[in-house]
Write a structure and sequence with these properties.
single chain; 111 residues; mainly alpha; DNA polymerase, domain 1
């Protein structure tokens, strides 16, 4: 049986359902939902030639790296906002089977 191929909107819907069961504060859930939704929307704009970041660990690593660059350059986010967004993406990866092969995303040192 072939593994299911998820679209970014389907993955986001599954994440939202999973998020309700996690022991997080209401505001953390809200922030993660917002940032993961933005990340999934970003994934929807990527070329299929770059691989499927929801199935391929290599493509996932590069998608997150490119998203970090996008947040810094296009969205002009400050380091703390970029880190919050990347923390949400890391949390999104917890409910995904690729997690075991992924490394955490590099963040800014804020001190």
């Amino acid at each position: 049986m072939a593994a299911r191929i998820w679209t970014p909107p389907e993955a986001f819907a599954a994440y939202q359902q999973w998020l309700t069961q996690q022991p997080l504060a209401v505001l953390t859930r809200r922030a993660y939902r917002l940032h993961v939704g933005q990340y999934c929307a970003y994934l929807g704009t990527r070329s299929p030639e770059t691989g499927d970041p929801l199935r391929d660990p290599f493509a996932s690593t590069y998608a997150v790296r490119d998203y970090k660059v996008h947040l810094k350059t296009v969205c002009k986010m400050k380091p703390t906002s970029v880190n919050l967004s990347l923390a949400a993406v890391d949390h999104f990866a917890l409910c995904w089977p690729l997690r075991s092969s992924q490394q955490p995303v590099g963040r800014y040192v804020l001190s």
